[in-house]
Amino acid sequence: MDTILTPEEIDSARALNWPQSGSGFTLDPATGALIVSPTLDRKVRKALRREARRMVCHLYLTKAQLDAESLWLKGKRALLHLAERFSRNFFQSVAD
């Protein structure tokens, strides 16, 4: 037997669920989505924006750090290349 619930039964069952009755959040069991009450909607959006700004700032700092490390490695590679050429030319001139 399948039990079909009407919207009124779901609302009354939700009101009986005491941990959620005073909360601004409810969980939709069919989809698993978290439903935010309109009174808390603005606070949630502000918190998400703040976290997104923090993440963007962190990503820009990480990119700058990676760019600096890449530049340092390119400089180190160029110096090693020059040292190799110098040593090769030096030993060839000594051998001649």
Describe the structure.
A two-stranded antiparallel ribbon has the order 1-2. The chain has 96 residues and is mostly helical. The protein starts with 6 loop residues before the first helix and ends with a helix. The protein folds into two domains: 36 residues, no CATH class; 57 residues.
Strand content bin: 5-15%
Give the distance, in angstroms, between the N- and C-terminal Cα atoms: 99 Å
Shape: rod-shaped
Q: Characterize the main sheet.
A: 2 strands, antiparallel
**Poorly predicted ranges:** none
How many domains? The number is 2
**Spatial order of the strands in the main sheet?**
1-2
The helix count comes to: 3
- Summing up helix and strand content along with how strands pair, one would put the structural category as mainly alpha
Helix content: over 70%
What is the C-alpha radius of gyration, as a whole number of Å? Answer: 32 Å
Overall mean confidence score, pLDDT: 80
Which H/E pattern describes the elements? HHEEH
Number of strands: 2
List its traits:
single chain, 96 residues, mainly alpha, 2 domains, two-stranded antiparallel sheet, 3 helices, 2 strands, rod-shaped
